[in-house]
């Protein structure tokens, strides 16, 4: 755990100094909301449309983070340094997933209010605790998949293409679950309760792929 | 070693498939609602089931590869996924034809089985590009195996998620209720599944035998001092 925290601290410090990922992700999401406004020709959205726009935008913004996640390690020898250290390699995965989770939380702190201001018809203040819970479950799933697929993609020739191509289909259950769970929260005329089965699906997804990723991460780092 | 029993297996497969098709055309009754069109079911559904099990088999071989680092397991996984991918294209095509005939549309989005199969197909469609974009063969094998394990585990989970998301319009053939098919249809269907599974195994063994023969030929040539045979075309198949 100490190893993971050390790597996580390094990741966050690197991000704070270079500001490579988070500002880009946040700007991308706000721009996408504006683009959605023109593409759909709507002033306001609600319900399933709102949930879909929010989820897809966050997903694509997250893809930017996925592509950047391991680039510094690959280009500047971070992998070699980590392999030389006498520590369990799984911690690198845990640290990367936690770092991406932190990026996503910051992204959503910017993107969700921007979405509420720019596009969303009904207010989100009454449904805020549920919204945070659903998004957090979705972020965990995304961070797990992205930390794994990012490691898979970063050493391939077309890494900017391979990463999203693999991650997008894998994330479809998360997209379905999140969009369906958010839909009642963003309804005009008051939020309705979140159906429990979508929370269950998201939780199950996080659990299964979390364990699976820890099991298969090691072979990605050898050599 | 993969050539052993291949002839007997091929003959068995042929007999089973021909028998299954004979049953489809002469024995199984026409469906009350859909009539003759429904018979595509005896090709479409077994193909889909075999393709999905082929993907999962690819994942299981990949686990063995990651545990033992034996390139033969990687080759097994590669061939299983390759054949499943070809079957999956067939599934999507026959499914579209059936959907057009039964529901009047080539593609129906509120149809969980179709959509989840499409997602699985899209995921596995990246398997070959992933292999192609990694130069080092040893790393290529490891990365492809990691992919095959994740994707193999993803197959059942994805079906669960997509199925829960939508109302049922697709007929449930192997659902928990299960009793909706009359006996003669059920028998035909089961024989069609067995035939398709045998077809998969036969193709898999043929491909494995061919790959092994080529690897043996190459090593013999190397021993004789002949220059390396140039590869016919670019391939991402694991070399033994």
TrEMBL record, chain A:
It is a multi-pass membrane protein. GO terms for cellular component: plasma membrane. GO terms for biological process: cytochrome c biosynthetic process; cytochrome complex assembly. GO terms for molecular function: heme transmembrane transporter activity. It holds the Pfam family CcmB. It comes from the Bacteria. The keyword Transport applies. Keywords: Cytochrome c-type biogenesis, Membrane, Transmembrane, Transmembrane helix, Transport. The chain crosses the membrane at residues 21-39, 51-70, 91-119, 131-154, 161-179, 199-221. Its main location: membrane. It is found in: Membrane. Belongs to the CcmB/CycW/HelB family. This is Heme exporter protein B. It comes from Capillimicrobium parvum.
Automatic annotation (TrEMBL), chain B:
It is a multi-pass membrane protein. One of its GO terms (molecular function) is heme transmembrane transporter activity. Residues 11-166 form the Cytochrome c assembly protein domain. Keywords: Cytochrome c-type biogenesis, Membrane, Transmembrane, Transmembrane helix. One of its GO terms (cellular component) is plasma membrane. The keyword Ribonucleoprotein does not apply. One of its GO terms (biological process) is cytochrome complex assembly. The chain crosses the membrane at residues 7-28, 40-63, 75-101, 113-130, 142-165, 185-204. It is found in: Membrane. Pfam families: Cytochrom_C_asm. Belongs to the CcmC/CycZ/HelC family. This is Heme exporter protein C. It comes from Capillimicrobium parvum. The lineage of its organism: Bacteria, Bacillati, Actinomycetota, Thermoleophilia, Solirubrobacterales.
């Amino acid at each position: 755990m100490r190893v993971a925290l050390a790597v996580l601290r390094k990741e966050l410090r690197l991000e704070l100094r270079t500001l490579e990922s988070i500002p880009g992700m946040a700007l991308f999401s706000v721009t996408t909301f504006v683009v959605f406004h023109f593409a759909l020709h709507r002033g306001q959205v609600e319900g399933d449309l709102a949930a879909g726009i929010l989820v897809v935008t966050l997903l694509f913004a997250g893809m930017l983070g996925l592509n950047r996640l391991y680039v510094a390690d690959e280009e500047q020898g971070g992998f070699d340094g980590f392999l030389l250290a006498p520590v369990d390699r799984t911690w690198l995965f845990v640290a990367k997933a936690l770092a991406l989770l932190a990026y996503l939380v910051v992204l959503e702190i910017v993107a969700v209010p921007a979405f509420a201001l720019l596009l969303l018809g009904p207010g989100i203040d009454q449904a805020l605790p549920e919204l945070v819970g659903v998004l957090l479950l979705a972020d965990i799933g995304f961070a797990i998949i992205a930390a794994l697929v990012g490691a898979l993609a970063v050493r391939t020739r077309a890494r900017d293409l391979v990463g999203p191509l693999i991650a997008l289909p894998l994330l479809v259950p998360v997209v379905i679950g999140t969009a369906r769970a958010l839909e009642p929260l963003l309804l005009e005329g008051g939020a309705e309760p979140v159906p429990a089965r979508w929370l269950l699906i998201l939780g199950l997804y996080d659990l299964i792929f979390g364990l699976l990723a820890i099991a298969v991460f090691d072979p990605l780092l050898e050599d | 070693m993969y050539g052993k029993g291949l002839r007997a297996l091929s003959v068995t497969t042929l007999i089973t498939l021909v028998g299954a098709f004979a049953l489809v055309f002469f024995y199984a009754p026409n469906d009350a609602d859909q009539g003759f069109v429904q018979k595509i079911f005896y090709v479409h559904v077994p193909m889909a089931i075999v393709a999905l099990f082929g993907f999962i088999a690819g994942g299981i071989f990949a686990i063995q590869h990651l545990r033992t680092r034996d390139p033969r397991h990687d080759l097994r996984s590669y061939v299983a996924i390759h054949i499943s991918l070809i079957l999956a294209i067939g599934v999507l095509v026959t499914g579209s034809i059936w959907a057009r005939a039964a529901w009047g549309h080539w593609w129906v989005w509120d149809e969980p089985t179709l959509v989840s199969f499409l997602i699985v197909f899209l995921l596995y469609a990246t398997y070959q590009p992933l292999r192609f974009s990694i130069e080092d063969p040893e790393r290529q094998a490891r990365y492809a195996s990691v992919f095959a394990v994740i994707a193999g585990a993803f197959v059942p989970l994805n079906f669960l998620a997509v199925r829960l998301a939508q109302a049922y319009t697709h007929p449930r053939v192997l659902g928990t209720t299960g009793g909706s098919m009359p006996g003669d249809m059920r028998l035909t269907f089961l024989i069609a599944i067995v035939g398709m599974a045998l077809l998969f195994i036969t193709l898999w063994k043929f491909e494995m035998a061919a790959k092994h023969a080529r690897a043996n030929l190459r090593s013999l040539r190397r021993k004789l001092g002949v220059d390396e045979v140039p590869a016919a075309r670019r391939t991402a198949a694991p070399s033994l």
